[in-house]
Amino acid sequence: MEDQLVQLLSATQTAQEDTRKQAEQQLLSLYGHQELPLGLIGIACHDSVPLNIRQAALLYLKSLVLAGWSDSLDEWKGQALVTEENKAILRQQLLALATRDELDRKLKAAAGLVVSKIAIADYPIEWPELLDTLLTLIPNATDGQLHGALRLLGELVEDSFNETTFFSIAPQMIKQLYDVAINDQRKPTLRALACKVFHGCFDILEMVLEDHKAMVKNFADEVLKDWIPFFVNVLNARLPDPPSLDEEEHDAPNAIFYKGQIAFKLQVVKVSRDECSNTAFRSTKHLTGPYAHTLRLPCHSLAAESRPLPSYLAGAVLARTGILAHVHTRGSPK
Fold first, then answer.
1. How many CB atoms lie within 10 A of CB 302?
2. C-alpha angle 232/149/180, rounded to 5°?
3. Half-sphere exposure (CA, 13 Å, Cβ side) for 266?
4. CA separation for the pair 218, 242 (Å, rounded)
5. Is it the case that residue 106 has pLDDT exceeding 90?
6. Residue 321: CB partners within 8 Å, gap ≥ 6?
7. Is residue 331 predicted with pLDDT exceeding 60?
């Protein structure tokens, strides 16, 4: 069936409306056939298939999952479309795809999104090993594996955890994120991504604060005792010398590293700013103690850079922090 599915998925990419709609209808007509989900994941995992077709396969697999995986999903259409045996196969292959080393990041992200939708229904009862598998992978992961694992953790935090599942895994998960964030042997972009996932925990804490004030406050105090000094050190650290225009244009290693450092520092600025406004965190002893001033004025860490930032980064600063007025760009007055 995979050859037939590749042809249909290719047809859904065409600009010809009649051909595209016919292919979409044919794919919908296959719902309920067990060859469909297995064929879609097979295509997504096949290196010889064009990337856009593999992405389309995951997109249609996500739609199938939402429609017919579990009645606990909001878009459930009333009929189970995947057998329990095939669910186990899909869970294993999707998780492997989302955390694969040498793989296009967009493809890994698409696989991770399907995993997060399945996890809403299946974690922890039907898929108890999901988080253990991810957290076991992270410490010794390659850069490619780590990027996939962190992206997937972010999706799970945003979409899949309730208060019970979150607090059962939060201490171990946040410790793993912290270990990545402080590891200066890791790429700055990966350290930034670890901080971003940590930032995603804020909404869950805010959501349960009203009913569990003491538990949330104790949890926040315990977590922030390590993260706050780390954030302050990052905020106070100077950026490396910016690359030359020629190095920027040719993506020289130091230009790539510099961009990563900017992304890392901007993420810490954002997390620090939001910590100070988050109800679950702002009353903790760590945000009322000696670090309070630095964290409540995080823009100072970029404003203090006497060396001008390249113009291509100015938009990122504005988008992430709203503090463009505090940051000099090349050619602007200091």
1. 22
2. 25
3. 21
4. 41
5. yes
6. 266, 269, 270, 273, 298, 299, 302
7. no
Confidence of residue 309 (pLDDT cuts 50, 70, 90): low
- 80 close to 121: Cβ distance less than 8 angstroms: no
DSSP code of residue 75: T
Q: What single letter denotes the amino acid at residue 29? A: S
Residue type, 7: Q
Query: How many whole angstroms separate alpha carbon 289 and alpha carbon 76?
Result: 49
Q: Are 17 and 28 in contact (CB under 8 A)?
A: no
On the CB side of 217, how many CA atoms lie within 13 Å of its CA? 9
Question: For the chain, how long is the longest CA-to-CA vector?
Answer: 66
pTM for the structure as a whole: 0.85
> Which residues does residue 329 pair with via DSSP β-bridges, in sequence order?
309
DSSP H stretches of helix in 69-212? 84-98, 105-122, 130-137, 143-159, 163-182, 188-208
99 contacts 152 by C-beta, under 8 angstroms? yes
